[in-house]
Amino acid sequence: HFLAVLGHELRNPLAPELTALELMRARAPETCAREREVLHRQVTHMTRLVNDLLDVSRLDRGRTELKRAHFELREAVDRSVDMVQPLLTQQQHALKVAVPEHGVEIDGDIDRIVQVLTNLPTNAAKYTPCGGRLALRAERAGNRIVVTCEDNGPGVAPEFVPALFERFAQGPRTPEQTTGGLGLG
Question: Do the bridges between strand 105-109 and strand 94-98 make them parallel or antiparallel, or are there none, so unpaired?
């Protein structure tokens, strides 16, 4: 209940903030364009964090509704790459995508698949030193689809692996790590 209330309270100011940024852009496109871009990126990030909190609340209450449909995995991958691109650019990472355009169809909730596919390279980008290499691949293996996200970062410490998928779980931070999250991904 606390997460649901917190999520809704945090979400309320976000829409007007995005609207104000859009109005500023429409009225004076050249004025403070870089600063508006930074604000837009940060408000969008805050919106994703709040949505993650609300998702956890819905899961706990058994109120998560999946909107199943047939779609090509590549469509979800392309959406996720668009979402993670600003972080990749900021960190000067190269991302290689090896997912067929067709032939890897899924029956599921595309928004949830995009969420997962965004979390994978986002985490890889956060914890890989600048100028890193990331790869996102998918292939059919019998009646399953195997998605692999690799990077040349430090990897997950073996002692943290058992807690990796627990809510709010985070590995230890090192002094050079300036980014983190809530452990909801």
Answer: unpaired
